[in-house]
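Hey L., structure's done. Input below.
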Amino acid sequence: MNVMVKEVAAAAAAELEIVNPLAAPKQDTDDVERFPPAPRLAALAGKTIGFFWNGKALGNVALERVKANLSADHDGLVFRDYIGVNGQQLRRTTPAQLEQMARECDAVVGATADCGSCCSWLIYEMCELERRGVPTVAITAEGFVEDAHWSAKVFGCPEAQLLVTPYAITSQPEALIHEMIDAGMDQLVCGLTELPGEAAADFAHHVTSPSAAVLSYRGADLLDCFDRMNADFIDKGWSDGLPLVPPVRDKVDAMIAACGRAPDEVIGLFEPGLGVGTVEKIAANAVMAGCRPESMPVVLAVAEAFMNPFYGLRCLSMSTGPQHPLILVSGPYAKQIGMNSGCCALGPGSISAVNVGIGRASRLIMMNVGLSYPGVSDMDTIGATGKFGACVAENEERTPWELFGVHRGYAPEKTSVTLHGPYAVSDVTDFTSTTPEEILETFAMAARNAAVTSAGIWLTCASDGVNIEGPFHCDWNPLIMLAPDHAEIFKGAGWTRAQAQAEFYRRARVSFRELMHHQPPELFANAHPHMQWLWDHPETPVSLYRRPDQIDLFVVGKDAGRSLFWYGGTGVVSAEVKVP
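Output:
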């Protein structure tokens, strides 16, 4: 272990100094954007109140109850209804829609902030209206209050006001929703009419970033120092739960040297906490993940891909869903640094050490650079093992088509990373099929899982999927991860990638009834008014995806007749691995 040992007191014979791996949040820097809440209303009577629904299920029921209660208690009110114009079960506004609400309303009530990313984005909408001089209140549940306050601070208006319900609005009977809204009406009226007090500075699960450039741990010996560092990281919330390699100066410097970039170069502001992501911070987290220096160009490419708005890092980081980065590496550098593209490529095992390190680094970057931590900004209901890291290299020798990186637009001599954000994965076992049609039917059987969030998500999507921040475009590519012997079936039949995509797209259909079983019908009506005839023909097969080119095919692993199908969860983005 490359550490510095110093003479210290008898009780602490060794000292471990490490590079601080935590990014400073933008809100703690000199150029932080901070604005006061809007002036409150002297009274509600005669005012125009806007009701913004972000599409979260049953939020419209909560807003209708607010309307009924306000009408009973205040004279001359005018109500205006708004729904986000980008997205599906989570709907975002546009600047134009925010301007419209600010122009037309004296105050706005928003619903609902009862999911990790839904909470954060609704608070964003409310903060932007406060910036425009409109007092707001967001409806949220007790379990998301800390998330809401944290997000309000990130977005520049910590005093954003809330109506807090005991339970999330989703999945509740209408009577309970009414009861909770009735009980919270005093909060709502107070939030619109009384100037907010100073926001709380600390929360139960709040994770802070130390400002010191170096962190020190003393102990009886180096192993004791190592244990103390890992215990401190767990205590402060900076750990992924597994032992971390100490990011000592020499190791971090070697990592930086391997990418040929300046340590203080800022790659970007990493969502959701707007952490200032320098090359040094990224390198320190790569060291902690167990990466070797030669992996740093790949890790840095992943970090740069995170910056692509189409990927939707904020939603991926904060959702109550189990989405996580799935990293696909294609090109010669993968083999050069010893990435595994064969047996057990997703790990575990020594043969996949490079893959595991890169995947784990992506999670530590999300945590310690993006400042996404469980319980306050990562609100995953249960979690997923893939969130520890998921990274594989393409089995280029067994790929029947152009390499995946070439398919994504890179030259054959270049190496690229492509990031998926899947909700879930299914084993696909087929030992008998010998034609492309047969094997694709097996994959389609896996795809026809209407319970997964991404199934038929385009049915409730209000946007066209073009140049929109993820995941509001709903272009959530599924991924067929082909074992080599399954890939050989397409090679033997002479099928192109496009043919395979088109045939899978044709087969991946589910009845309208199944797809809409757990979707708000109001969102489908808003997004596709011309398709409402489907309610009269509920067994009509409907495509799971908008277009055939959404289906990605990636060859990895070894022969065994077992492949994987990954259900999409956000936009898919790529970045070049820049080898110095």
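The chain has two domains: 48-193, 228-508+544-574. The first strand starts at residue 14 and ends at 19.

-- N.
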